[in-house]
């Protein structure tokens, strides 16, 4: 057999230098080569001739050459197209061979050295990230080649440089042997996607360094030592430290934690170079089966973060990185798993600065071999071990100086194999100061943590309860945030707080990876798998984040923030008692202020501050609420108590809500007919029946008018456009109820009217609603009563037959003319909520337009319900419209400009076109959301089981001057 061609070579590359620590703070000269480069795309690896690598080649005017922005992906700059697969390799699996169709980007860049580029020394050409394989030439000389996309690679080039007209040429292949190690669930995006820099290395420059900064919680001292392999000094002026490399000092310091990210400026200097850095003192250990930082158990309130920007893919600018982290901090998130590769190194600086625990994960995933029963899995084949070790080294060496990085992760979803063991052995030996992570069973030797993905709440509980020697348990992924959801977060959090060994988890995932595209008529939408003509793809499974592609928080993020709040406020609003529990791992509550307001019927009538005593982490304080104001107003009353930032922080202004609770003070008035005994009798009026303010079709019993407002098609509705979590995971048939709902035909229910029965006090309409081809059905009786002003509906639903699936929703739907598009309600808000995603729903008065009520999930699906609604008004610009109030129980309110059927049929947001109706759903019940698009489904208590139900509403017409 001949030697493999370099891009099909399982060895990690040729000609690159050993990995070393990142030195962003170096005072050595550096030239960023980002900018406009010449670019030519070939369909195969050998397609373009190699003349372009020669020194004298001139691409200007040569066929096929364009200008490309580097760093960047060519497929996002008009050359070729992105492609999305989850686990499947988009090429035949024949490792390490790749197809002839191997899009290859030739990149060429000319540069001059700045006039003040120093004489002497060495120079390195550094690539922070190239997908998936690069071969490099400088001034006509080949430097070598490398694989390992999300890892740095350096070449020594000093001898080749000239003051002017340097020619850098990089040939990048989309597919290589390395692609088999990079089967992460994301877009395939080839290119030079992180910076290329030229680094001057003066004589006596820092070759590599490692600043060890531990913290001894028993006496509050820091332990500092620099490892440098050459003569060097480390100074930390603020601490009065100036030591030589190898020397260790112990002195009092303030520790670094994710809650208190205390950093000290430091400088490491050798004869030729000074490197500025920020040091954080902290020690991470596993003790008695518990992961501890600085002596204390920590709890991960985490997310998995891919590098993603909607315009530039995995080229992510620093502003976006900071924005991600600021948003995380604002939402009480304290940990990031860098799924599933090391991030841009600047991201870790920001984690140090803002305070997040980081699991730094290696660029490794071979998930596609699962479809072959893991035959030929590279992590279980010696030939690949050098490549695996190379990846481990490049990660650990680059990132070893970050206090935020507390755990190394071998990679993701590679099955198991000896190669992982080799990586683990090397990492443990190189860095015994950090635990190692890999998702697997609890007895898996190559992980110090027991890490699982998507277990049910009950499994977490079972693991939490176990006695004896165990590893700390983390959920490296849970709560699949695809589309509407994830549901069931609160139940997980309770377990994390209850069991010491359950140390939290990382929601999958931070952001939707939608790519902006336009319809033919110019409207923008976010595209997903299949939208670029891919033969093999996994659709919108790439849109499963807590934020939309443009970083607008999705309701799932608001819910997560509430569920993981680091302060828990409980109490009894009637007895005016209040307990504030500090759930931080380290911080006391001195950074917070406690505010209260007292609300009657949703209106805040009084408010103020309560003194917040000093509550150490893990403890609570009991307080007393003030005497409620005498308002003279009757009705439902509640306290809203919130813990807010007392001062501006690096990530949110003073006043930012960190935690809150609402405590009922006076319960809602008992439900019932507000006008018992005052009912009016229906009157026949031609083809209509008049009842109080309403008109009905006398033949069908359909409500047609309320006051001046035309009402259309009011009847029982059980259908919702299935969410991604309703649909379930494609590889786990039956995991979500959506397919069963469709099979049964809940999207095409038929309604038969059996009787319209006017009597002295109202009208009864007896019906049966059922799908075709089954004898299952719902007997539905609508009982209408009225006073002169009010119309009341009482609905009774009695199922017939053996239903073996829950209902999507249960309530009534009706249409109003499009002009009634302003909504005001007293109930949960401001955002959407469902039975298992309602923790963040805040009871109050809210106002929105119908358009504003929609949540624009990248793939349209059920959204926008508001929980616990007491009353709602739908009005036009003049205030005319209708008011609906809860009958027997609070209801779920949804209003949109399209039907659930349209919503269900839409593939992208631009498929949703308003018609001339506002469709209103008033629901007695909604099915929960769960996480079945990848994880467990809806917990039993959040299922909407088919059972007899009674519910009702009171309607009134608004004439334009009436107040809600
Ligand atoms: C996990 C995997 C992630 C992602 C997720 C589903 O199995 O580790 O990369 O694919 O499922 O979105």
Per-chain topology:
Layout: E1 13-14, E2 30-32, E3 35-44, E4 65-70, E5 83-85, E6 101-111, E7 122-127, E8 130-131, E9 133-138, E10 141-147, E11 153-156, E12 166-173, E13 186-188, E14 191-192, E15 196-201, E16 210-216, E17 221-227, E18 233-236, E19 241-244, E20 248-252, E21 264-269, E22 274-279, E23 284-287, E24 290-293, E25 296-297, E26 300-304, H1 318-330, E27 335-337, H2 345-354, E28 357-361, H3 385-399, E29 405-409, H4 418-430, E30 436-437, E31 450-453, H5 457-465, E32 473-480, H6 489-498, E33 502-508, E34 515-518, E35 524-527, H7 555-563, E36 567-572, E37 577-582, E38 592-600, E39 603-610, E40 620-624, E41 637-645, E42 657-666, E43 683-685, E44 688-691, E45 694-697, E46 703-706, E47 709-710, E48 712-717, H8 724-727, H9 738-744, E49 750-759, E50 762-770, E51 777-786, E52 790-800, E53 809-817, E54 822-829, E55 842-849, E56 866-869, E57 871-875, E58 880-886, E59 891-896, H10 900-905, E60 917-926, E61 949-959
Parallel strand pairs: 26-27, 26-33, 27-28, 28-29, 29-30, 31-32, 32-33
Antiparallel strand pairs: 1-10, 2-15, 3-4, 3-6, 5-13, 6-12, 7-11, 7-15, 8-14, 9-10, 9-12, 16-17, 17-20, 18-19, 18-21, 21-22, 23-24, 24-25, 34-35, 36-37, 37-40, 38-39, 38-41, 41-42, 43-44, 44-45, 45-46, 46-47, 48-53, 49-50, 50-51, 51-52, 52-61, 53-60, 54-55, 54-57, 56-59, 57-58, 58-61, 59-60
Helix pairs in contact: 1-2, 3-4, 5-6
Bound molecules: beta-D-galactopyranose.
């Amino acid at each position: 057999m001949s030697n493999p061609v370099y891009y099909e070579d399982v060895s990690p590359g040729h000609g690159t230098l050993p990995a070393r620590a990142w030195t962003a703070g170096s005072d050595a000269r550096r030239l960023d080569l980002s900018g406009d480069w010449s670019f030519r795309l070939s369909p195969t690896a050998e397609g373009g001739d190699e003349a372009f690598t020669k020194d004298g080649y001139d691409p200007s005017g040569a066929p096929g050459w364009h200008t490309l922005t580097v760093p960047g992906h060519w497929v996002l700059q008009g050359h070729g197209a992105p492609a999305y697969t989850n686990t499947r390799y988009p090429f035949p699996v024949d490792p390490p061979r790749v197809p002839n169709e191997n899009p290859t980007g030739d990149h060429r860049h000319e540069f001059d050295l700045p006039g003040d580029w120093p004489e002497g020394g060495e120079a390195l050409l550094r690539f922070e990230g190239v997908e998936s394989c690069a071969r490099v030439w400088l001034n006509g000389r080949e430097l070598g080649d490398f694989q390992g996309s999300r890892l740095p690679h350096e070449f020594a080039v000093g001898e080749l440089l000239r003051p002017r007209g340097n020619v850098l040429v990089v040939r990048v292949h989309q597919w290589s042997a390395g692609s088999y190690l990079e089967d992460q669930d994301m877009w395939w995006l080839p290119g030079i996607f992180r910076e290329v820099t030229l680094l001057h290395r003066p004589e006596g420059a820092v070759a590599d360094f490692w600043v060890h900064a531990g913290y001894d919680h028993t006496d509050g001292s820091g332990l500092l030592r620099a490892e440098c392999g050459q003569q060097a000094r480390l100074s930390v002026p603020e601490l009065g430290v100036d030591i030589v490399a190898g020397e260790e000092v112990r002195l009092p310091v303030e520790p670094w934690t994710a809650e208190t990210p205390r950093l000290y400026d430091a400088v490491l200097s050798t004869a030729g170079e000074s490197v500025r850095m920020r040091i954080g003192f902290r020690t991470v250990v596993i003790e008695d089966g518990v992961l501890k930082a600085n002596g204390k158990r920590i709890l991960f309130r985490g997310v998995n973060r891919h590098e993603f920007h909607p315009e530039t893919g995995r080229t992510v600018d620093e502003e976006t990185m900071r924005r991600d982290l600021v948003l995380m901090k604002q939402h009480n998130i304290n940990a990031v798993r860098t799924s599933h590769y090391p991030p841009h190194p600047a991201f870790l600086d920001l984690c140090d600065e803002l305070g997040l625990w980081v699991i730094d994960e290696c660029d490794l995933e071979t998930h596609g071999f699962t479809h072959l029963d893991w035959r030929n899995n590279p992590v279980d084949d010696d030939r690949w071990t050098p490549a695996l070790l190379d990846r481990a080294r490049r990660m650990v060496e680059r990132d070893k100086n970050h206090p935020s990085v507390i755990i190394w992760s071998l990679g993701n979803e590679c099955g198991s194999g000896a190669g992982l063991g080799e990586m683990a052995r090397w990492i443990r030996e190189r860095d015994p100061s950090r635990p190692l992570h890999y998702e697997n069973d609890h007895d898996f030797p190559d992980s110090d943590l027991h890490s699982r993905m998507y277990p049910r709440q009950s499994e977490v509980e079972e693991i939490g309860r176990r006695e004896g020697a165990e590893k700390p348990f983390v959920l490296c992924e849970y709560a699949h945030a695809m589309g509407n959801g994830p549901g069931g977060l609160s139940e997980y959090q309770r377990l994390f707080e209850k069991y010491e060994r359950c140390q939290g988890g990382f929601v999958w995932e931070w952001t939707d990876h939608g790519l902006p595209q336009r319809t033919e008529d110019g409207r923008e939408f976010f595209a997903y798998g299949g939208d670029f003509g891919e033969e093999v793809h996994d659709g919108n499974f790439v849109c499963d984040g807590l934020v939309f592609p443009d970083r607008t928080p999705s309701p799932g993020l608001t819910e997560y923030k509430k569920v993981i709040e680091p302060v828990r406020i409980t109490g009894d609003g009637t007895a005016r008692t209040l307990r504030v529990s500090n759930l931080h791992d380290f911080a006391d509550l001195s950074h917070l202020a406690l505010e209260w307001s007292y609300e009657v019927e949703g209106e805040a009538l009084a408010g103020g501050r309560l003194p917040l005593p000093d509550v150490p982490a893990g403890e609570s304080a009991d307080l007393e609420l003030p005497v409620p104001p005498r308002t003279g107003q009757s009705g439902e009353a509640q306290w809203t108590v919130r813990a807010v930032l007392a001062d501006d922080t690096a990530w949110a202004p003073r006043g930012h809500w960190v935690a809150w609770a609402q405590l009922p003070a006076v319960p809602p008035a008992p439900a019932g007919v507000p006008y018992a005994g005052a009912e009016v009798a229906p009157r026949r009026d031609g083809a209509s029946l008049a009842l109080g303010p309403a008109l009905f079709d006398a033949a069908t019993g359909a409500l047609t008018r309320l006051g001046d407002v035309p009402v259309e098609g009011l009847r029982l509705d059980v259908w919702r456009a299935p969410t991604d979590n309703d649909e379930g995971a494609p590889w786990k048939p039956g995991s979500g109820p959506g397919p069963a709902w469709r099979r049964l035909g809940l999207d095409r229910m038929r309604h038969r009217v059996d009787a319209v029965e006017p009597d002295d006090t109202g009208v009864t309409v007896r019906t049966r609603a059922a799908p075709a081809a089954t004898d299952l059905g719902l007997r539905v009786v609508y009982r209408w009563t009225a006073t002169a002003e009010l119309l009341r509906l009482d609905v009774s639903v009695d199922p017939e037959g053996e239903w073996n699936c829950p209902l999507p929703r249960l309530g009534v739907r009706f249409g109003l003319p499009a002009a009634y598009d302003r909504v005001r309600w007293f109930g949960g808000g401001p955002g959407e909520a469902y039975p298992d995603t309602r923790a963040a729903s805040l009871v109050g008065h809210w106002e929105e337009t119908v358009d504003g009520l929609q949540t624009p999930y990248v793939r349209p699906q059920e959204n926008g319900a508001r929980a616990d609604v007491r009353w709602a008004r739908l009005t036009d610009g003049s205030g005319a419209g209708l008011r609906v109030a809860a009958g027997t129980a609070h209801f779920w309110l949804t209003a949109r400009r399209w039907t659930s059927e349209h919503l269900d049929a839409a593939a992208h947001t631009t498929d949703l076109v308003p018609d001339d109706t506002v469709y209103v759903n008033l629901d007695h019940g909604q099915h929960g959301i769960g996480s079945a698009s990848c994880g467990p489904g809806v917990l039993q208590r959040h299922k909407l089981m088919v059972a007899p139900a009674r519910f009702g509403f009171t309607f009134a017409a608004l004439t334009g001057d009436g107040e809600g």
